[in-house]
């Protein structure tokens, strides 16, 4: 980055960090929905794979994005938190959004943010939060690129998360456990109810292995909204795995066939399970009619 780009990025980061922190959530989608309406609903300009869960959701999101990109699709990916720079949260075709583009998107949105802030404050609510603004920026950036598909990771929970203004083609739920209990609930079942909110009608719910309580809640939600379901261990699975130099070799049963001797350059049974879920999510995205090159993971 050039010095002017560094200075401009720092300016925007300072403004963003002055907002309500992303560690606080309010059970309302009003502000992000209002912003999307003002922007012409950019979140509907491309198909979406939406991901929640407690464990493995970022790894799974990245695997899904990598598979989609390997098939020639132009991808958008939004994850949180970031490690080094805020631009890492919004990725276009596998790369962090350029700092100049990040600043440009923010500056374009700023007048609309002011409108939403003003109306929310006037009605006794808060201004838009840090996470809400970044989510709006990601959706606008994806529409502007444009992308062929967006992989969207929930920030916290699901039902009331700012990302939950999308209409996903596929909803993915990784393993659910105790997670932000102060905001999401003090039992795993209450947390599962929050996370089940990303499962929508006319979508496919791809569910990782779950304990009995969360599994029952997720399946009930899918039935209520008439979503199709693909379950790890039933419709797709890790058949077996073996340690290998640099990672592990997997044999996977997907929704559309078997995938043999896949080298995954990551260690652990949890990463094998994540790869299995990612494969099923991409198969579901294509309607289960395509055999994939999962080596792209």
Draw up the topology in text:
Blueprint: H1 3-17, H2 30-38, E1 48-52, H3 57-70, E2 75-78, E3 90-92, E4 95-96, H4 99-122, H5 130-144, E5 149-153, E6 170-173, H6 181-184, H7 188-195, E7 204-207, H8 212-225, E8 228-231, E9 237-244, E10 247-253, E11 258-264, H9 269-285
Parallel strand pairs: 1-5, 1-6, 2-5, 6-7, 7-8
Antiparallel strand pairs: 2-3, 3-4, 9-10, 10-11
Helix pairs in contact: 1-4, 2-4, 2-5, 3-9, 4-5, 7-8
List the domain count as a whole number: 1
Number of helices: 9
CATH superfamily: Mur-like, catalytic domain
Class derived from helix and strand content: alpha/beta
Query: What is the alpha-carbon Rg in Å?
Result: 19 Å
N- and C-termini, Cα separation? 29 Å
For the biggest sheet, the summary is: 8 strands, mixed
Measured by DSSP, the beta-strand proportion falls in 15-25%
Rough outline:
globular
The secondary-structure element order is: HHEHEEEHHEEHHEHEEEEH
Strand element count: 11
Runs in which pLDDT lies below 50 for 5 or more consecutive residues are none
């Amino acid at each position: 980055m050039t010095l002017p780009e560094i200075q401009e990025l720092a300016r925007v980061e300072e403004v963003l960090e002055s907002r309500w922190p992303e560690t606080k959530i309010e059970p309302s989608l009003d502000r992000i929905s209002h912003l999307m309406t003002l922007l012409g609903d950019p979140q509907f300009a491309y198909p979406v794979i939406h991901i929640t869960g407690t464990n493995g959701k970022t790894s799974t999101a990245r695997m899904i994005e990598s598979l989609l990109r390997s098939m020639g699709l132009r991808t958008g990916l939004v994850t949180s938190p970031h490690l080094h720079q805020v631009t890492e949260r919004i990725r276009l075709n596998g790369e962090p959004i350029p700092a100049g583009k990040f600043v440009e998107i923010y500056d374009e949105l700023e007048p609309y943010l002011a409108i939403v802030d003003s109306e929310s404050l006037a009605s006794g609510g808060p201004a838009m939060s840090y996470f809400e603004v970044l989510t709006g920026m990601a959706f606008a950036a994806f529409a502007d690129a444009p992308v062929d598909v967006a992989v969207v990771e929930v920030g916290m929970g699901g039902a009331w998360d700012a990302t939950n203004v999308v209409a996903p083609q596929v909803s993915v739920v990784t393993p659910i456990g105790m997670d932000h209990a102060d905001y999401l609930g003090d039992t795993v079942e209450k947390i599962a109810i929050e996370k089940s909110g990303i499962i929508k009608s006319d979508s496919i719910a791809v569910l990782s292995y779950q304990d009995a309580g969360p599994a029952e809640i997720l399946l009930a939600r899918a039935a209520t909204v008439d979503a199709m379901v693909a379950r790890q261990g039933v419709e797709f699975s890790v058949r077996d795995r073996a340690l290998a130099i640099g990672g592990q070799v997997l044999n996977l049963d997907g929704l559309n066939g078997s995938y043999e001797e896949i080298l995954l350059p990551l260690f652990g049974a949890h990463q094998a399970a994540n790869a299995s879920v990612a494969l099923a999510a991409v198969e579901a995205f294509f309607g289960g009619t395509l055999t994939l090159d999962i080596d792209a993971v």
